[in-house]
Design a protein that fits this description.
The protein is α/β, with parallel strands linked by helices. It has eleven helices and 18 strands. It folds into two domains: 276 residues, Spore Coat Polysaccharide Biosynthesis Protein SpsA, Chain A (Alpha-Beta Complex), CATH 3.90.550; 57 residues, no CATH class.
């Protein structure tokens, strides 16, 4: 089994810590390691370094080698430019099919937090066990929901098929991306829905067959790249073909079109959180809604339900703040209510072409 950690996003929802030249996955958001390094540590007990790959942009190649020097250089799958996750996953599938078409692999992400790592590794091994026997399947991993959120995707599953190593394997029904609040509340109350962390296992041959079926034009390009992989012509062909791919999410391109019979779901509570935005990081790190979460030199008085991260040597003081985010870096101070996080991305985009573009 192989694992590929996707580490290519810019992470504007974690601005001003996350910037184009140093995106969130390379920053020390939790503890003293980057979230990419934490993602590696999470799986290294059950994967050999030769079987751990990282997918990212070519501009981050040097950072990857610095943060994960233990990985072989050929295990960094670098895109010449960002074309969204549909193309990124296709590139990995094409390369893996050439290496070993029926060897299962797991898709993971570099900006998440997992509290129960032992259970998480057990889930990955169980997914591999299933895929070793059933090559033409996708095994989705669902996190038991903790609240009704509109900011995450949801997995709908059917009847329980069997138990494996104390884990429950379910029929796959459907995926729902960021539903409205009433729908999310129904999902949370249901016993047939879980959060979708975006983790799944499959085989390269089956995934490539889905690209051939649902995205034939991209499939043809992936085959060209696949044939060139490992040859002197690879970089040139990759740049030419990959750069012409449609910008589209993997969910829209492939997952929303598959049949229920193509997948299984392993549902469990392994303490997963998406920490790709400040308010999600607050939810992941606090024991309850009222608790504050701080980092660095911070002093709070009569404050609640706030996240204050200070990446400088000066003191940050907060008095009578509630539901607030305060992020202090060397060149930017961000202060906003938690529910204003969606506006951060728009603000960062508005800086393009201005004198403040350097801050993005």
């Amino acid at each position: 089994m192989k694992a590929v950690i996707f580490a290519g996003g810019v992470g504007t929802r974690l601005w001003p810590l996350s910037r184009k030249h140093t995106p969130k996955q390379f920053e020390k958001i939790v503890g003293e390691k980057s979230t990419l390094q934490l993602a590696y540590d999470r799986i290294s007990p059950i994967f050999k370094d030769s079987d751990i790959f990282v997918s990212s942009g070519d501009r981050y190649g040097d950072i990857l080698k610095t943060q994960l020097p233990q990985l072989p250089s050929e295990n960094f799958i670098l895109e010449p430019e960002m074309r969204d996750v549909g193309a990124a996953v296709g590139l990995v599938a094409a390369i893996f099919e050439k290496i070993s078409k029926d060897d299962p692999f797991i898709i993971l992400w570099s900006d998440h937090l997992v509290k129960n790592e032992e259970l998480f590794r057990k889930i990955l091994l169980t997914a591999n066990e299933i895929l070793e026997k059933e090559k033409n399947k996708i095994v989705f991993i669902g996190q038991k929901s903790r609240l009704a959120t509109q900011n995450l995707g949801w997995i709908e599953f059917g009847e329980k098929i069997r138990s494996m190593e104390g884990l429950s394997l379910y029929e796959f029904k459907n995926l729902h991306y960021r539903p409205d609040l009433p729908t999310a509340e129904n999902f949370h109350a249901s016993e047939k829905h879980a959060w979708n962390p975006g983790y799944f296992g499959t085989t390269p041959s089956f995934l490539m067959s889905l690209y051939k079926k649902f995205a034939p034009q991209m499939y043809e390009g992936l085959v060209k790249i696949q044939k060139a992989w490992g040859t002197p012509e690879y970089k040139g062909i990759l740049k030419e073909v990959f750069s012409a791919f449609e910008k589209i999410s993997f969910d829209n391109l492939i997952l929303e079109k598959i049949n229920g019979q193509d997948g299984y779901v392993i549902g469990a509570d392994f303490g997963w959180s998406d920490i790709g935005a400040w308010e999600q990081l607050k939810e992941a790190l606090s024991k309850n809604e009222e608790e504050n979460v701080t980092r660095g030199k911070v002093m709070l008085t009569d404050a609640s339900d706030s996240l204050v991260f200070n990446y400088t040597d000066q003191m940050v003081v907060g008095i009578d703040i509630k539901d607030f985010l305060v992020i202090n870096t060397e060149d930017v101070v961000l202060v906003c209510p938690k529910d204003s996080v969606p506006k951060i991305k728009k603000l960062v985009e508005s800086l393009t072409g201005t004198e403040h573009e350097v801050l993005t």
